[in-house]
TrEMBL record:
<comment type="similarity">
    <text>Belongs to the ABC transporter superfamily.</text>
</comment>
<comment type="subunit">
    <text>Homodimer. Forms a membrane-associated complex with FtsX.</text>
</comment>
<keyword id="KW-0131">Cell cycle</keyword>
<dbReference type="GO" id="GO:0051301">
    <property type="term" value="P:cell division"/>
</dbReference>
<protein>
    <recommendedName>
        <fullName>Cell division ATP-binding protein FtsE</fullName>
    </recommendedName>
</protein>
<dbReference type="InterPro" id="IPR027417">
    <property type="entry name" value="P-loop_NTPase"/>
</dbReference>
<dbReference type="Pfam" id="PF00005">
    <property type="entry name" value="ABC_tran"/>
</dbReference>
<dbReference type="InterPro" id="IPR003593">
    <property type="entry name" value="AAA+_ATPase"/>
</dbReference>
<keyword id="KW-0472">Membrane</keyword>
<keyword id="KW-0067">ATP-binding</keyword>
<feature type="domain" description="ABC transporter">
    <location>
        <begin position="2"/>
        <end position="228"/>
    </location>
</feature>
<dbReference type="InterPro" id="IPR015854">
    <property type="entry name" value="ABC_transpr_LolD-like"/>
</dbReference>
<keyword id="KW-0547">Nucleotide-binding</keyword>
<comment type="function">
    <text>Part of the ABC transporter FtsEX involved in cellular division. Important for assembly or stability of the septal ring.</text>
</comment>
<dbReference type="InterPro" id="IPR005286">
    <property type="entry name" value="Cell_div_FtsE"/>
</dbReference>
<keyword id="KW-0132">Cell division</keyword>
<dbReference type="GO" id="GO:0005524">
    <property type="term" value="F:ATP binding"/>
</dbReference>
Length: 228
């Protein structure tokens, strides 16, 4: 579903953020991406989103070579691959419903279809009863769940998350992980960047460890406890 073939990323200032990465992630896997701040986690996720392009090598996502993808295909690509951010990136002057509806509005869905899908997504994250609230009326954990509902509302094949529990306490973080596992169990391929090692040890999933832009380890679930 995702394959990096000798991928390097050098930013325009000359800094090499990723160095010749090789790995692949199968459809239906749930994988954690770890490493210290600055290791290259966000850059790797941006390459999968086609928000940045590799300087060398090829990135394949869902059967397409992103290096060769024409710009006209990128909106379609971004409907297959959704992302959850640490700071939610919610619109604070719009209701919960409108925030979750946004990707569908942009994609041009009919209003009746939007209402049905938004409510289904809010139901999955347990926030159907708060659809008319503004984000600031919700707790941090609830805001993150709105961000997740928005990311899954168009039923992506791949869900990426960049430090999705960065601002949450351990109990709320565990709830967010449970939600991710539920999406994964219905077939969504997941890649979750997190430097919270205790959290990802408890998940017992495959772990890719980056260090200074290099892939230092690719650990099977049974070995995930050895991450340090
Ligand atoms: P471009 O590739 O368009 O020339 P840059 O790579 O210089 O642009 O920067 C793109 C964005 O990333 C800018 O908003 C810039 O502020 C930000 N940026 C630049 N350097 C860094 C850095 N070391 N870490 C994080 N963000 C950076
Ligand atoms: P992480 O998500 O693991 O913290 P990042 O992918 O954000 O790592 O950053 C990796 C390295 O690349 C950092 O040293 C960062 O400063 C640098 N970097 C990130 N974005 C840019 C940019 N646009 N231009 C230049 N350097 C950048």
């Amino acid at each position: 579903m995702i394959r990096f073939d000798h991928v390097s990323k050098r930013y325009s200032n000359g800094f090499e953020a990723l160095k010749s990465l090789n790995f692949s992630i199968d459809a239906g896997e749930m994988v954690f991406l770890t490493g210290h701040s600055g290791a290259g986690k966000s850059t790797l996720l941006k390459l999968i989103m086609a928000m940045e392009h590799p300087s060398r090598g090829q990135v394949f996502v869902n059967g397409s070579n992103l290096t060769r993808m024409p710009d006209s295909q990128i909106p379609y690509h971004r409907r297959q691959v959704s992302v959850v951010f640490q700071n939610h990136q919610l619109l604070f002057d719009r209701s919960v419903f409108d925030n979750v509806a946004l990707p569908l509005v942009i994609a041009g869905y009919a209003a009746s279809d939007i209402a049905k899908r938004v409510r289904a997504a809010l139901d999955k994250v347990g926030l159907l009863h708060k659809e008319n609230r503004l984000p600031l009326e919700l707790s941090g954990g609830e805001q993150q769940r709105v961000g997740i509902a928005r990311a899954v509302v168009n039923k992506p094949k791949i869900l990426l998350a960049d430090e999705p529990t960065g601002n949450l306490d351990p109990e709320l973080s565990a709830e967010i992980m449970d939600l991710f596992r539920q999406f994964n169990e219905v077939g969504v391929t997941m890649l979750i960047a997190s430097h919270d090692i205790d959290l990802l040890k408890r998940q017992n999933k495959r772990v890719l460890a980056l260090s200074e832009g290099e892939l230092r380890a690719d650990m099977a679930p049974a070995n995930a406890g050895a991450v340090h």
